[in-house]
């Protein structure tokens, strides 16, 4: 059941993050708590999928460093589609280095901070290498970047984030810096602060795992039992022969799970 879940309305009132306000408004408008992970490797494939999927999702997630023909024209088109179709752009870069290196990576050849609304960071490098760096970009209107998602738990088998107090320490970093940490990447709800959104990868309605460490579970488990807010779906949609049909199926299932209590 969804007992104890904070409603979207309550969250909207709680959060001071402009990014989360934008996300929640998209969620309500589109009846969607779905983020599509497009792990295609050419800009043409990606943009074609974004055009079709954009209306049904709150976020499009990419890995900028797997795109073989990455260019500024690609990010310009992506930004235009995001503005028109109302989704946020998420680069799953998983920063994990010194603050200075992270800064260079955010402004380097991919210019991530200029086109991504949100990026992921690991917590392993510690708070001082994370918070001041991202704060500088997020508070600077010259950059599009407006929030960061802290990886508290990975979906992968044997993930070291499950060791000892790792997740607890990561949550502490987020809880104390909620002006920039707008969400977690997590498997289960782990913070008492309801203004931080819980984004969860490792969701597939038809398969349990791949052969390289990924673990999937269904939407009900991810949303109703583990109390996440936004479902990140990749191959369940992108490897399907009928991706948009699948996308609609995921959107509806995830939204029903999220709003179950509210509608009862
Ligand atoms: F942080 C994480 C994680 O713990 N698991 C993930 O799967 C990120 N991911 C990403 O979500 C991963 O890099 C893929 O881009 C996406 C999941 O796609 P899938 O095709 O559903 O496995």
From TrEMBL:
BP GO annotations: 'de novo' pyrimidine nucleobase biosynthetic process; 'de novo' UMP biosynthetic process
Entry annotated with the keyword Lyase: yes
This protein's pathway: Pyrimidine metabolism; UMP biosynthesis via de novo pathway; UMP from orotate: step 1/2; Pyrimidine metabolism; UMP biosynthesis via de novo pathway; UMP from orotate: step 2/2
Residues at the active site: 92 (for ompdecase activity), 94 (for ompdecase activity), 97 (for ompdecase activity)
Domain Orotidine 5'-phosphate decarboxylase: start-end pairs: 33-250
EC number(s) from the headed UniProt entry: 2.4.2.10, 4.1.1.23
Keywords: Decarboxylase, Glycosyltransferase, Lyase, Multifunctional enzyme, Pyrimidine biosynthesis, Transferase
Signal peptide (from-to): none
Residues that, per the record, bind substrate: 39, 61, 155, 214, 234-235
GO function term, MF aspect, one: orotidine-5'-phosphate decarboxylase activity
Family, as annotated: In the N-terminal section; belongs to the purine/pyrimidine phosphoribosyltransferase family. In the C-terminal section; belongs to the OMP decarboxylase family.
Protein name as catalogued: Uridine 5'-monophosphate synthase
Species of provenance: Caenorhabditis auriculariae
Residues included from the entire protein: 233 to 496 of 501
